[in-house]
Amino acid sequence: MSKPKPLRKAVLPVAGLGTRFLPATKAMPKEMLPVVDRPLIQYAIDEAREAGIEEFCLITGRGKDSLIDYFDIAYELEDTLRERNKIDCLKALEPSSIEAGSLIAVRQQEPLGLGHAIWCARSFIGDDPFAILLPDDIVQAASGKGCLKQLADAYNETGGSVVAVTEVPREQTNRYGILDTGKDDGRLVEVKGLVEKPKPEDAPSNLSIIGRYVLTPEVMPYLSKLEKGAGGEVQLTDAMAKTIGQVPFHGLRYEGTRYDCGNKLGFLEAQVAFALERPDLADGVKEFLKKYTDKI
After folding, report:
1. What catalytic activity is recorded (predicted)?
2. What is the count of structural domains for the chain?
């Protein structure tokens, strides 16, 4: 097998309305909601950088301009912090800095599904492999490697598309894209087919795709047809399924814990889990958790 093209691009779909977090998301993108002291979008960018990503494309919608502003230089703020010798605050801003020209934004005018959002990035993607990160999903690394770095390593092994997968209760398969599986070594599983949100009785397995993908450009011609699938939307899962047999396709059982920050309970759990990882917060968090567990 020839060496696959380097993975350097990432697409981050951030056009959603965030209705599950109203009223907080009435005037701010849900991707700017903080887990401890970093917004969701920052966790996704940090994970992508660790995987070697150098170019980023945000698929935005109306009212999402603050996502672009977040990665801009805040001259007045930084000057004020320097004048006041707030070195720790300046250091805290460093992750929100992105090299000039490496971040672009594309507007998705209508909410026509994840497949449509990725199609909107077609000029950015070109003929290159690309990663997709859904900022709603935060993965707390367990092995020292972030989820996307693990996917990038698997892509370099297989030379084809790789998606992060996890087992879900069978009664929940109608919420996710589900794998029809082939060979399975416990880490990498061959993908023979993909089904978007199947009924539990129709699901070929209980292996679900989470919000991390590495895809080859062969998926783009299928997305360009803008064929509607489940829910009347253009489904990325449907287009990926059509590339099976054309390119290698695997699911990766990643190492780490995924938090679905697209719902309130997952978001609250992520707050606690990430705070407990922080030396400056862990002891205090443990203390107040004891107070609340006494009430259960």
Report:
1. alpha-D-glucose 1-phosphate + UTP + H(+) = UDP-alpha-D-glucose + diphosphate
2. 1
